Structure formats: C-alpha cells, structure tokens
C-alpha cells in the first residue's frame, strides 16, 4: 500500500472575506507559517504517508508553490511535496491533486487546508480502514442539533431522524483509482458535491465511517477564527545554565554585573572580564539552544578586546527577542574569597535587571566563598554561575 495526501488549499474563503478578512483563510499566519502548513506538519508525521500534494490558488500559483518549497526545507520535511493549481470548485481542485499522483500511489487522503486541527491518529484510523479493504473511509461525529429540511419559502419540509445523522470531516481516505473514476463519473453527470465521499456514493460505492474528532473543525465563519487563538500552543519552559572563571592578575579593573568594584583585584581578560555577565550570557544562550559565549564572541577577535560585557548581553538579548524568548527569572552566584561583595548586592541585582529589561524582583544575586579551598579560596581568581528560566513562545 502506498499512501499520499492531497491538501486542498485553493479556495477563495468567500465567507470570511465577506466578514472583512483580507487574507484567504488557508494563508492566515498560524504557529509561524500559513495555516495550511499545519495540516502538512500533521500528515508528514504519519509514517504511512509517503508524499504530499498541495493544491494552490491558480492565479498566484508560482508564488504559493515557492512558499511550499521554502516551508518544506525550513521544516526539514523529507517527503516529496508536489504543488498543483486548483480549480473553480473544491471537487475540481481535488481532481487536479489526484491526477498529479495517479501513477505514484494507490491510496490517498484528501484533506481540507481549512481543517488545521485534524490529528495524525485520525489519519491512521482512515488508512487502516482502506488497508483492511474499504474503498472509502471518512471521519464523522454525531450531530447535536435537531436537523430540519427547509423549503425556499422558509417552511420546514421535514425533521430528519437525528440518530442517523452525522457531520463528516476530512481527511477522507480512498483507494485512488476508485476515487478518480468516481470524480470522472460525477463530472460526466454534471454533479456538484461538497465532499469526495459523495462521489463514491453517487458512483454506487460503499463508504466506511470512522469516529471523527470534535476539535477537527473547518475554519469557515468569523467565529471559527477564535479556535486559532484558543488552540495556540503553550509556550515551552526552558532553563539555561552558565559558568565562567577569571584569573586575578594585571588586566582589567574588576566589574561584576556591570558594577565597578572599588579596590577589587584586577582580572585577566580579553573583554572587560565581567565574570558574572559572562556566566549570564552563557545561561541566556543555553535557553536559546545557541551554544556558548566563545562561539559568538571569540577571545581571538580584536573586535571584542576590552568590550563591555553589557554589550554582549545586549546582543544575546536581541537573539532572545527574535526567538520570542520571555525571561522569567535569573539566579546568579559569584564565588570569590575576595573582594567582599555584600555591599554591592543590590546595585548588582538592579543593574542586571536593567540590562535584561526585567523587574528587579525577577533577579536574585548571591555571593559566597569556598571557605579558603581551591583557586578562589587561594585568591587566585573568581568564578560565577547563572541560571536563567524562560518561556519560548516561538
Ligand atoms: N475551488 C476550491 C474551493 C475550495 N478549496 C479548498 O477546499 C477546502 C474546503 O472548502 P471551504 O472551507 O469551503 O473553503 P473556501 O471555498 O475557500 O471557503 P468559502 O466557501 O467561504 O469560499 C478549503 O481548504 C479550500 O481551500 C479548493 O482547494 N478549491
Ligand atoms: C469536505 C468537507 O470538509 C466535509 O465536511 C466539506 O463538505 C467542505 O465543504 P465546503 O462547502 O467546501 O466548505
């Protein structure tokens, strides 16, 4: 069995356009990409899906095809991704997608780009049904309203028997040759349908129904847009840890957290030697997953000779902003036998908070000795550790 998925994204979104939305709904930004891409990410995770076809608006086809190529490479999607132009009606768009893979596979999932929340498990249930011999399988959920057939004059013609009714969704899975034949049959008869299973029904085939997902709504009307914000992913909590050491010796006047320490020993350094801001910079880079201070600001580069460490912190903060990292809390410790840092505690905390542009309540500063042990105990140098907690929104 070889399965591909066709994602139809060539609609006009007229119902939302009427309500004032200027972007077609399938291209609204969502989780850092156009909305249709959410379905691509989900279907690419289904191991039995071997390729994706995107059906895109004909008028701007080249532009959207380039976007698909770009997103696929950015997300490292290794599946083949084909792009084809859509047609006038949904069924025309689907058929264009099916024809593009007619020679490539035997089973297809047809999915609306306007249903971004369909899950990978649902796709698997549908593929299972076709694997077990059904020519068509669709997801459905029970209807909770009473459904009536109404005449053009606005009178009830009939109340339908609710226990027999269900609302159907996509993806819908099919034996590909059967679906193409059903499309051709319906087109020859001039039938307009709203889903692909209807084609199989019209051509006399059986359609298996599997449980759908309540959350798998189709973004259709303005109220549905709220689902996009309600379903925004929770930010990712992360922790970064940093550590730095400087030797005492002829070099730079001591600064801790950007605060000059009067009468403190000088430190040997390429930069200004602010051990605390270096540990902090490494902790920020840790949250970002972007290596360490030496990679970004090498001590062999003249540009960083005697550079103020606050500048380095600021550069990493810019990277943090780009990655939508929200700082939560910073815990800092300096380990040194000399100098005594308690008189500077508040100034250091306040200056670090200022540099990080966060409230001073979210910064904690501590200083300790190592009881005369080791290189700090022997007053040969100083070390600092920093722990940053943050939320990644990007
Ligand atoms: N000619 C068309 C019409 C629809 N679709 C796609 O089919 C799915 C379901 O259609 P619908 O929700 O009706 O989207 P639109 O047709 O864009 O919406 P509207 O009816 O409000 O214009 C959507 O992903 C839509 O992009 C398509 O590819 N080609
Ligand atoms: C295919 C579908 O999503 C199943 O519910 C639906 O029929 C699409 O209908 P639309 O008129 O294109 O919105």
Write the layout of secondary structure elements.
Layout lengths: L2 E6 L5 H5 L10 E2 L2 E2 L1 H9 L4 E8 L4 H14 L6 E5 L4 H12 L5 E6 L7 H12 L4 E7 L5 E3 L5 E4 L6 E3 L3 E4 H14 L6 H7 L5 E4 L13 H6 L5 E17 L2 E2 L2 E2 L14 H14 L4 H4 L12 H14 L2 E11 L9 H12 L6 E6 L5 H4 L3 E12 L2
Parallel strand pairs: 1-4, 1-6, 4-5, 7-12, 16-17
Antiparallel strand pairs: 2-3, 6-11, 7-10, 7-11, 8-9, 13-18, 14-15, 16-18
Could you characterize what this model shows?
This protein is α/β, with parallel strands linked by helices and 394 residues long. The protein folds into two domains: 3-228, Alpha-Beta Complex (Spore Coat Polysaccharide Biosynthesis Protein SpsA, Chain A); 236-392, 60s Ribosomal Protein L30, Chain: A. Helix content is 32%, strand content 26%. It contains 13 helices and 18 strands. Strand 8 (148-150) and strand 9 form a beta hairpin. The mean pLDDT is 95. Ligand LQXTBERG binds next to loops.
